[in-house]
Amino acid sequence: MTTETVELERIPGKDVPVEVEDLETEEITVNIGPQHPSTHGVFRMMLRLQGETVVNLEPVLGYLHRCQEKLAEGHTYLQSIPYTDRLDYVCSMTNNHAYVLAAEKLAGIEVPRRAECIRVIMDELTRVMNHTLLVGFLLNDMGAWLTPVQYALREREKILDLFEMASGSRMMCNYMRFGGVAHDLPEEFLPLLHKVLADYPVFLDEYERLLTTNEVLMSRCKYVGILPPDEAIAYGVTGPVLRASGVAYDIRKVDRYSLYGELDFDVPVGTVGDVYDRYVQRVYEARQSLRILEQVTPMLQETPPGEIMGEVPRRFKPDAGDAYGRIESPKGELGFYLISDGSDKPYRWRVRAPSFVNLTPLGEMCRGHKVADIIIIFGSLDVTMAEVDR
Amino acid sequence: MTMRVPRHDKFQFPGLGLLKGLSVTLTHFFRSYRRQRNWRVPGEEPFPGGIYGIFTHQYPEERAPIPDRYRGLPILLYDDATGAEFCTACQACVRACPVGIIHIEQATNDEGKRIPYASSYTIEWDVCINCGFCAAACNFGALVLDHNLETARYDREALHPTKKQLLRPASYFEKIAPTVWAEIREDAAKRLAGTIKRRPDGVGIVPKKQ
Amino acid sequence: MTAEELQALRTRLEETLPDGAILEVQESGALVLRPDALLEAGRLLRDEEGFDYLSNVSGVDWLDQNEFEVVYHLYALRRGERMLSTGQPDGAPLATGPSPENQLSVAASAEAKRVSAEGMLGPVVLKVRVPRDNPVVPSVAGLWSSALFQEREAYDMFGLQFEGHPNLKRIYLWDEFADHPLRKDYVPEEA
Fold first, then answer.
1. Could you tell me the pTM of the whole model?
2. Which of B66, B93, B131 to mutate to test the interface with A (most CBs of A within 10 A)?
3. A: neighbours with 3+ CB pairs under 8 Å?
4. By CB count within 10 A, which of A110, A271, A369, C68 is most buried?
5. What is the per-residue pLDDT for A201?
6. A215: nearest CB among B17, B69, B98
7. Distance of alpha carbon C80 from alpha carbon C1, whole angstroms
């Protein structure tokens, strides 16, 4: 407890400073508990507040821990694919892709071109969907109660219809297999894909018209939650958060896995690294994903239908060794580290979840901000607790 | 090939951003009075309204179309013509299931030799994660995934069906998922001919309903 | 990373590190270090070789050999960024699709950059082994802050003690939980 003299700030136009002596102030600890509509899952933050300003923030995790890494050691490699769907439930196609990429690296399996085209299409559709959905939920946290979310969900329905046609399920797609994809695309897939590619840019322009120059959004998001680029790299932050801080690192461009070496797209990069940059960067990245989709769709139509699986042994038993496969998921770098001991079950199945590592600088970013800003900063980091806790 | 995202720091007239946003919502509001259905109807142009229109279905009178590949809960099939079940109790689905919810017991004939017929077959539908590995593993075209969306029941036992409750005629599956049935039909018929020979008479035939 | 690049890196490290710090170089290119040489090697890799991004810290339980292993994956982020970025004015209008000559030149220039770059974008894989009954590993959280949460997870799941970590407590399980679940000899208690 400190006893201090507090001088209230001068209000322009009324220059009578008011001094209050002997005002006792105390730091209080407040819990933003696991059940909270703004915490994007079950996430707890312990805040130390001086008035309304945050002095320290400690995240408490583990409320959604399902011990997937231990479960996977008891299942075969193939049986773990549905579990990867449930890591980051919004982006199940990219989770599948990362796992399958790591397993293919471990076993040395090649993937035919048509399957690679399908994989890129699914990945980029997921990225578009995730970014618009995230912008919607960020606006939700800011108090624009449900209008942007509703628009994003309306467009997301078309993409979910595409996933349902191809894989059989809207969210838990379980579509990719070692060496390719599970089924070929049905006939009604391409007409709907062309419709999505025609409608989505119109929708994104409308979304930007609704949100980007809105005064409330700009005043709440600009210069809030700044993450400098060197700190971002040290904290291991990847994905749109890193690019919004000004570091142009995109795993699709660096590793050039799958077909990304042949595709032409830009990497949007922010300047300041605040919440506003993270929001605008995601919208521009969604536009780049649409550009990739427009390039891959003719590539898909050139490949002969039916060749969707490579040469895979009947029982997947890779030789002893380890492999780390990573992709650029919509949230950041999603990597799988697999160790095989020669049997059909993995010895170690480790997920490098982007949301988990992106959560590390949350305390640093929130210091000095108000409580209302924390919700926005956390929302802009794009965290899915299922991936954090696994 | 990097590009800097714009920050919109230039001065704009106060309130202009809010008005632009309001114009978007008002456009949607007035367009909705045209009552243009913005759905996906199989066979027609999908989502004709683009980004405008009414996109909600008045459930349960209007329902969204379910594609052939949809993964509902697993069911067993039997052949319409002979009434013989396709399932041979080979346990491939048991081994494939990631959550281990399928339980099969193989039947034996009078001499104690095992026959390709399941004397008991239960699936725990409440634990099923709808991954479809069981249907992919079945070599006999016996286990497929239904298109049921309304799966709620009042008690737990209704969600643990026995074989009698799981069986459906193959014509039912052909009606709901023709492309999937077309892939497995020939193989299933060929293998069924071999299976019937190895079963004693009368075993594995589903009684005809009156 | 090619084998030559890895060999060159290993030679440079061996010159500076004390003798016997690199115990083994595995087939896949992973460097197995002695635990007490980990911090020195990490500092060299970060400051002089430019591997500024620690992607993954993973614990492994080798029950048969009675050892725990910690695996680190490092990448060179700034070097990768330099390879990619060419810079464009603010909010430049986007092309809606590639023009033929643009696509070819993009691919060719990217390839040229890749070949002529300083190379070595990663991953560099470091492995450290400690005995199972005394699993103490120096913490790299001072070098790369991305290890802060990941080492806490390795402590929670395996019981690995990271010396020098500022806040080593359980991250997923509740504080009073006694065992470490990802160990191979973990037996869950009957519900």
1. 0.89
2. B131
3. B, C
4. C68
5. 93
6. B17
7. 12
